[in-house]
């Protein structure tokens, strides 16, 4: 039997565009995701976040679910276009929504863990060049400053960016996320500006505003394994690790980009002149914790047809509904690697969870055995890791609700709560009931 200490934080997570809806209310203007989801062919079934889980109107009901889970904390993100609907125009009505939400959470004894950027850049900022434009760093800081000033009292921890790899590489290189570009030169600049805006936001928070809540960044990390012992596959796996993990880990913890990746990218990136004097030091500004989103390991092989020389390989692991390997052991290896090679900071698993095909039974139950097992395996892994002294301080299940799963629309359900998108009725799945037990007993 594994046990968790009283101060270990159990939570659940969501993000603004994926759940809020009310796309045109409260003074909000479109984000890049409104644009992208309305572009034919980009999102499964033409789904958009216009209504999503209608959380903007139903947040009180959703807080009741969070209370029923008994969790210590709830992680959500702020929609930038609600706060700055146009350049330089602060919108207090937008902020009011998050104040109400955070207050209600505090009243219920639930700690708000707030992400500033979970991918919904305002369209006005995109029209001025988006994250490719270095001015985006200042736009983000203006937005961050307002959030810090208005919300810090109500927030228990801050995350600057969620998964900059997704925003930069999926958005600007692979073209599957907003804004749907396919240009490595842009993607690499974007990653730099995202990271720089992170470092500057931390400096602003600590050194200028003198605020004291813990602040950090969340990266999506997948430990990478070669499909075979062939040297080509090992090279490909190393490149993919550089592409997905090290391109973000090295700047944040070592104040430099990985040399091997600079080399690989230099064939497609015209120059690295966007890296200015002092930038790397700023990016590595020390944080209070490190956030990790973990879903799966990656199995990679050499490819002559792909420009970066890698591609996913078939694996015989059990899969989630996304086709991702269920790999709790590799999760443990990832954490040990991070401890050995990168950081001593306290860690939070800011997302972990799985999509599976769910069936809502007549009696309102959802018997999501696979999701429950996935969750138990990863929570158990954390208990083992903490016995080894890995200092993981919290775990946030992705996600509180079935929601808009980006390019997959409403086709993929990650929730521990089932949402009937026709009626907006919520049903706790079996995984949610089991999670409540674990949280309550602090053991499994
Ligand atoms: C997160 O992203 C997001 O933060 C969240 O908004 C989203 O809803 C949730 O996860 C579920 O998707 O095996 O090499 O193909 C997930 C980031 C990055 C995780 C890519 C899986 C696959 C790497 N994903 N990764 S690979």
TrEMBL record:
Class of this enzyme: hydrolase
Enzyme nomenclature, EC number: 3.2.1.21
GO terms for MF: beta-glucosidase activity
Entry annotation: catalytic residues: 163 (proton donor), 351 (nucleophile)
GO CC terms in record: cytosol
Catalytic reaction(s) noted: Hydrolysis of terminal, non-reducing beta-D-glucosyl residues with release of beta-D-glucose
Keywords: Carbohydrate metabolism, Cellulose degradation, Glycosidase, Hydrolase, Polysaccharide degradation
GO biological process, one term: cellulose catabolic process
Xref: PROSITE patterns: GLYCOSYL_HYDROL_F1_1, GLYCOSYL_HYDROL_F1_2
Residues in the signal sequence: none
Binding site for substrate: 18, 118, 162, 295, 398, 405-406
NCBIfam families per the UniProt record, alphabetical: BGL
PANTHER family: GLYCOSYL HYDROLASE, LP05116P
Family classification: Belongs to the glycosyl hydrolase 1 family.
Name of the protein described by the UniProt record: Beta-glucosidase
Species annotation: Pontibacillus yanchengensis Y32
């Amino acid at each position: 039997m594994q046990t968790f200490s009283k101060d270990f934080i159990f939570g659940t997570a969501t993000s603004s565009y994926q759940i809020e809806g009310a796309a045109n209310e409260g003074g909000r203007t479109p984000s890049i995701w409104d644009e992208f989801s309305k572009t034919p062919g980009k999102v499964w079934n033409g789904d958009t976040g216009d209504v999503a889980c209608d959380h903007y109107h139903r947040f009180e009901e959703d807080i009741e679910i969070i209370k029923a889970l008994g969790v210590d904390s709830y992680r959500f993100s702020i929609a930038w276009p609600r706060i700055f609907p146009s350049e330089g125009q602060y919108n207090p009505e937008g902020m009011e929504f998050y104040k109400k939400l955070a207050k209600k959470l505090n009243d219920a004894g639930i700690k708000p863990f707030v992400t500033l950027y979970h991918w919904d850049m305002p369209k006005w900022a995109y029209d001025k060049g988006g994250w490719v434009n270095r001015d985006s760093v200042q736009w983000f800081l203006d937005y961050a400053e307002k959030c810090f000033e208005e919300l810090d009292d109500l927030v228990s921890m801050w995350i600057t960016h969620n998964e900059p790899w997704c925003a930069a590489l999926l958005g600007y290189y692979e073209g599957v996320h907003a804004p749907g570009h396919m240009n490595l030169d842009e993607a690499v600049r974007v990653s730099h500006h995202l990271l720089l805006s992170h470092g500057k936001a931390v400096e602003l928070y600590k050194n200028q505003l003198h605020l004291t809540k813990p602040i950090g960044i969340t990266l999506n990390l997948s430990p990478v394994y070669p499909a075979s012992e062939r040297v080509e596959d090992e090279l490909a796996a190393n490149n993919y690790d550089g592409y997905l993990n090290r391109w973000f880990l090295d700047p944040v913890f070592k104040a430099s980009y990985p040399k091997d990746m600079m080399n690989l990218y230099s064939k497609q990136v015209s120059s690295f002149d966007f890296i200015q004097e002092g930038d790397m030091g700023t990016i590595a500004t020390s944080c209070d914790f490190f956030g990790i989103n973990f879903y799966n390991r990656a199995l990679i092989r050499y490819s002559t047809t792909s420009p970066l020389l890698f591609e996913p390989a078939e694996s015989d692991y059990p899969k989630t509904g996304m086709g991702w390997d269920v790999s709790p052991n590799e999760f443990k290896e990832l954490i040990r690697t991070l401890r050995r090679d990168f950081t001593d900071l306290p860690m939070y698993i800011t997302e972990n969870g799985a999509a599976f095909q769910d069936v809502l039974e007549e009696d309102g139950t959802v018997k999501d055995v696979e999701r429950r097992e996935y969750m138990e395996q990863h929570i158990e892994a954390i208990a083992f890791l903490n016995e080894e002294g890995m200092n993981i301080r919290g775990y946030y299940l992705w996600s509180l609700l079935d929601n808009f799963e980006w390019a997959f629309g409403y086709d993929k359900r990650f929730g521990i709560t089932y949402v009937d998108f026709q009626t907006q009725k919520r049903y706790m799945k079996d995984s949610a009931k089991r999670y409540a037990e674990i949280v309550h007993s602090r053991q499994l």
